[in-house]
Amino acid sequence: MAHNCCTKEKVRKGLWCPEEDEKLFNFITSHAPASWSSVPKLAGLERCGKSCRLRWMNYLRPDLKKECFSVEEETMIIHLHRMLGNRWAQIARHLPGRTDNEIKNFWNSCVKKKLISRGLDPNTHNLLPAPKTAHINYSYHLNNNNYNNQYCSSTSSSHESSPLALFSVAPPDDINVDHVPFIHGHGDTLVINNIASAAGGSVMEEAQQVGGLLAECCIYSSDRLLDFDDSWRLCDFSYLG
DNA sequence: AATACCCTCAACCGCCGATAA
DNA sequence: TTTATCGGCGGTTGAGGGTAT
Fold first, then answer.
1. d(CA A101, CA A40)
2. Which residue intervals define the domain Myb-like in the entry (predicted)?
3. Chain C bases having any atom below 7 Å from a protein CB
4. Segments of chain A assigned E as strands
5. Is the Cβ atom of A54 within 7 Å of strand B at any atom?
6. Which residues lie below 8 Å from residue A154, measured CB to CB, with a gap of 6+?
7. pLDDT in tens, A151-189
8. Percent of chain A predicted with pLDDT > 70
9. How many angstroms separate the CA of A109 from the C1' of C18?
10. pLDDT of residue A216
11. Which end of chain A has fewer surrounding CB within 10 Å, N or C?
12. How far is CA A212 from CA A49, A74, A102, A122, in A?
């Protein structure tokens, strides 16, 4: 059923001009309209009430942030999307000054592509079928004052080696936070399967206690994005040629 | 310089649930 | 209980700007 305000004649559509913005802004900030459907007539606008509401909510509201999304906001959006799916309005409630529309656009134009490039399905946040896999020979050693030079290793076979390949690592059953993998290759993406369960679900907290520095790598578990923290670092692995 | 293609994002559309009459 | 209206939401569109050819 059409909204009452939308069925009236002389309803403008399309982009808002500065004069319209000024009329709407002045009206809303100086009145408390009972309903959005009454706004166009009272504010002297040839728009429907829905359009006025949208313009106010998404653009004119004084509490809106105008700057680009921060890294923290992006991380928050990814986390919330994993939990809530495409419930943009709910996600927006956790990000003050951001609108559902803005977050939706940001997701569709930027975040989606980033996740895909990291080998993750943006809808499910699970791993996509890897276009390339490289079984690697990897070793773990601690990079921490208390545990320096402790070392253990595990091996697997290798199909190919490319410094920028997306690769999947199946850690040994006994992986734990005493055995933090060391990664070379900044910007690479390392996918660690089952690390959360292997570490009792608190690998990040434990890893922070282990200490070290953070490498510029992207690290994911197969079922959730792991939170980075500057207090620990993944260090070394080597490909089998 | 001209054209095609791509990307971003503001705005619209259609649907849904809540509420009032 | 039914109907009309509204606010709110998610999906989609298309204008306009940027980039590649």
1. 22
2. 8-60, 61-111
3. 4-12, 15-16
4. 136-141, 151-154, 167-169, 189-192, 218-221, 237-239
5. yes
6. A138, A139, A140, A171, A172
7. 222 222 222 222 222 233 333 333 333 333 333 333 333
8. 49
9. 15
10. 28
11. N
12. 56, 25, 37, 31
Of A197 and A129, the one with more pLDDT = A129
The residue-averaged pLDDT of A81-108 equals: 94
A96 and A148 belong to one structural domain = no
Do strands A167-169 and A189-192 pair parallel, antiparallel, or not at all (unpaired)?
parallel
Q: Are residue A106 and residue A208 in the same domain, yes or no? A: no
Q: Which of A24, A107, A17, A103 is nearest to A62 (CA)?
A: A24
* pLDDT above 90: residue A212: no
Q: What is the per-residue pLDDT for A170? A: 35
CA-to-C1' span, A79 to B1 (A): 47
Which residues constitute the domain of residue A109?
71-117
A26 shares a domain with A106 = no
- A210, part of any domain: yes
Residue whose CA is minimally distant from C4 C1' = A1
